[in-house]
Amino acid sequence: MIKNLKRVSVTIVIPVRNEEDSIITNLRLIKKQVKIPHNIIIVDGCSMDQTFSLVSTYTKSNKNVKIICTSPKKSGFKDSLDIGIDAAKTEFIVVMMGDLCDDPKTINKMYEEIQNGSDIVVASRYMSGGGKIGEPKFQGLISRAVSKTLHFLTNIPTHDVSNPFRMYRKKLLNSIKTESRGNEIPIEVIYKAHMAGAKITEVPTIWRGRESGKSKFRQLKVVPGYAKVCLWVLLNHK
């Protein structure tokens, strides 16, 4: 159970691009539903809409929220993650998306779990109690297939290897060097952490499909990235 905590030990890193329709609602939900003291770092990958302006205004009355804008040459998903993680100064880091698909309440469960000694706590959509609502069919097939295959073949102790929504010990995260640059990054990270002996656990979460804005998930672009990192895992697994 989460008791009265005063020290901020968690930073929520949210990479965004063109999320003007959802980001402020998401920030308000986090403020309402996350019961532990936390900071938030929004990393804006050169949005073409009002995302940066809206968040900048929000930070004036919410001092625990900070926004960083990337350079045009470093505006990809990996770049935004690296910038946010480097800027975080707390013991624990949560990575979540800014599109309202991730459930902020899950962060409370992840925090309780990481206090028991975990190095990574995965918000799992595929374990008992987890689920998805309003998901594009093909997207779900890809994610489930990858998760089931790697869970079975490599014994990674999570049913959801592709969900970026996780809590990490920053010390561990800093020690993992990744080559991936897109949506496949979580797969590479979880596998390398597993092979390094990290304690990985999971808690159930409900993922909800986007209700506003435009999805950044591009099925035809995701498949090659997933295939490449999965092949690398299978060839290197001992």
Describe the structure.
- With 238 residues, this protein is α/β, with parallel strands linked by helices.
- The protein has one domain (10-236): Spore Coat Polysaccharide Biosynthesis Protein SpsA, Chain A (Alpha-Beta Complex), CATH 3.90.550.10.
- 39% of the residues lie in helices and 18% in strands.
- The protein has eight helices and nine strands.
- The chain has helices at residues 23-33, 51-59, 77-87, 106-114, 137-154, 170-175, 185-195, 219-236, and strands at residues 10-16, 38-44, 65-69, 92-95, 120-124, 131-133, 166-169, 200-204, 206-208.
- A seven-stranded mixed β-sheet has the order 3-2-1-4-7-5-8, with helices on both faces. A two-stranded parallel ribbon has the order 6-9.
- Helix 5 packs parallel to helix 8 (219-236) and helix 7 packs parallel to helix 8 (219-236).
List its traits.
seven-stranded mixed sheet; single chain; 18% strand; 238 residues; 8 helices; globular; alpha/beta; Spore Coat Polysaccharide Biosynthesis Protein SpsA, Chain A; two-stranded parallel ribbon
Helix segment tally: 8
- The ordered string of helix (H) and strand (E) elements is EHEHEHEHEEHEHHEEH
Q: Measured on Cα atoms, how large is the radius of gyration?
A: 17 Å
| Number of E strands | 9
CATH superfamily: Spore Coat Polysaccharide Biosynthesis Protein SpsA, Chain A
Note the quaternary state here.
single chain
Strand order of the largest sheet: 3-2-1-4-7-5-8
- The appropriate CATH architecture is Alpha-Beta Complex
Mean pLDDT: 92
Give the CA-based shape.
globular
